[in-house]
Structures are given as C-alpha cells and as structure tokens.
Specification:
alpha+beta, 5-stranded mixed β-sheet, 15 helices, 48% helix
Length: 414
Amino acid sequence: MSNVDLEADRAKAVAMPLADYNVADPILFERDTVGFYFARLRREEPVHYCPKSRFGAYWSVTKYRDIMHVDTNHKIFSSELKNGGPTLIDGRESFERARFMAMDPPKHGVQRKAVTPVLEPPNIARMEVIIRKRIGELLDDLPRGREVDWVDRVSIEITTQTLATMFDFPWEERRKLTRWSNVAMAIPESGIVADEASREAELIECYQYFKGLWDERIKQPVKNDFVSLMAHSPDMRDMPPMEYLGNVILLIVGGNDTTRNSMTAGVYALNKFPAEYAKLKANPALIPNMVSEIIRWQTPLAHMRRTAVVDTELGGKQIRKGDRVVMWYLSGNRDEEVIERPDDLWIERPNARQHLSFGFGIHRCLGNRLAEMQLRVLWEEIMRRGMTVTVTGEPKRTHSNFVHGYETLPVEVH
C-alpha cells in the first residue's frame, strides 16, 4: 500500500465512531491497517462490544493485562466446542473443529498430554540436527541475485518438512500438509477455497488420508510421531472421526502457519529496521532473543476466542454468560503500557519472551519450543553463510483475522 492509502486508512480509523468498529474484518488484516483501530481501542475503549458482524456479536479485549486475565481464567472463559470453541468462527457450525484446543479440563489435558512426547526437549534436540541440515541445503539452493518468493522457497518448505517428520508423513506428498493447513483456516473470499462446501470436501480428503495412516500405525508398535501416539493412546484411540480430524488440523496449523509466518516476518522486519539487521550481522549471539522479538512483532495468530460461562466484569464492562470474548494477541503485543517501543523490532529487547503470541494458561502453545528452535536455526545458518536477504517488494498478506501472515514476499539473496 502507498503512504497515501495508509494515511487515509489511519484517518478513517480516527474518524469512525467506536460504536461502528468491527476489528474482525479480514480486509483490515490483509491491508495491514488493523493496528490503527487497535491503537484507538487501547486508548479509548480497551474492552469493546461489536453488536453485529459476519461472526455474530463479540467483545474485543485489546490490552495486555486484560488478555492475560481472560487467557488464565478458563473457569470463567471457556474454549469448549459446545460453547463455540477457540476462534471467532463458531465451532458449533464447523465440522472439523472438535480438537483438544476446543476443550476445557479435564479432557483437554488428557488429549494434550498424549501427543507431547514428540515435542519434549530430548526429541526437539534430536530433530534440530536434521532440521539444521535441511535448512542449510535449502539456503544453499537459493539463487543469488535473482528475485524469489521467500514464503514458498523457505518458510513453507522448512515448516512442511518438519511437519512431515513429526507426523511420519510420506515425504514426497508433504505439500498436502501445507494445502490442508491453508484450507482449514480459509474463508471463502480468501480465494483459497470457492465456498464452504469445497473446504469441507478437501478436509474430508485430509481425514481419509490420515485415517489410512492411523490404520497403519495401530498395527505397528507405538512410535514417536503424532499419529502413532494418538492411535495408541487409551484416551484418544476411540475418538470420533471428526475429533481425530480436528486434532490433526490443530497440529498441522500449529506447526505450519505460525512458524512459517514468523520466518517470513523476520526477513520483512529486519529490512524495515535496517539498524537492527546491522546489529544482528555484527553480533549473531543476539539470535535467540531476536527470535522471541520476531514472534512478538509478528504475532502469527492474531486472536483466540473464549465464551463467558458466567456473568463477569472486565475493564469496567459487564460481560454476560454466553458472550463471545476475543483476545486480540496482536493488539496486546502492541500495548504501550507494558511493552516499550511496541511497534519497533528491537532485537535486544529486555524480556523479549514476555509476549502473548503463544498464549498463557492451559492452552499455551504446545509447540512453542519447536517453533523457536526452527527460527533460531534458520537465522544461525543465514548468518553462518554471510547471507543478506533483501526484500524487493511489499508482501501479499493473508486474508484472515486469525492467521496473521503472508502469502508471498519477494526477496533477493546475496
């Protein structure tokens, strides 16, 4: 977007009555202008009610501490599917959304625990050796001095390779995982799927494919991959088909969309803040802290939704039982009262890990250490090669209020 367009959108956000605000409109995220609206809400009405949207009525929670309150009080704010689930799109209306992220205790903890061995530190350490080799090969294969799409050539490929390993998924068909991740989170006007029926048809194909993998693994001794662990778990082996699909989609999206968009965000942000890029080149020891800062700056999942199960008060507003309550992590990570210079990428930021991007409480991101490791290794290998990645044009952003990401980013590698 041009500076003129951005200023026009900023002026619109200032002039519009707060009563007319609908920050869940995906076009605001695609245009990268939703931050203007969030900034005003944080100043003037941190807990805001939108009475009408395509998703129904909802409350927006935009301040860091209020989001923490909602995220850590699951007895007041439920993720349970029967109450609507964890996203603005009502889970009761979407067939694949039965998954442990859409559960409250005790079932949530039982199912989550079943798949955690794949993501325990010893296994992540073993995977790092493999991932480092793959990343090195990908970087070495990039053409020098010629424009390429960083999203497709690097971000998607790294994360899809890792997902294939965690699922023990057929290697030559690993891009199916990317497609299913995109389809699962798509809304019709995004261009990814034609309509809801098309989306559901593709996800049924996903289920049938993973059902075949389940049938193979159940006949074999248990292995340390997601499908095998679910198939052999006493608490998951009798899951209904759509609950199995829901958990598969959760693990695919969690391992794919979030990490790949942070990998792209790092390149984009360092080009926007060249002084930080210079710091990184001068001192690659900053990479671990920079990884946390990139994840904060990007916030790859823009929101999570809860449903109030009792009447409660938040930010001086009365929340009624049954109300949708949306935690805008993207806004909380820009809260000026908690985060210094929130709009800047600051790779030496003190307490960089204290961001909201992974959530808090019982639903804190299961694969956060794996995501951080992949980002760290990517930047270690870029620096080890003395590579400079230069952005050559603006990114095409995702048409979504949930996955905050990039469809393309043109770059040249030198």
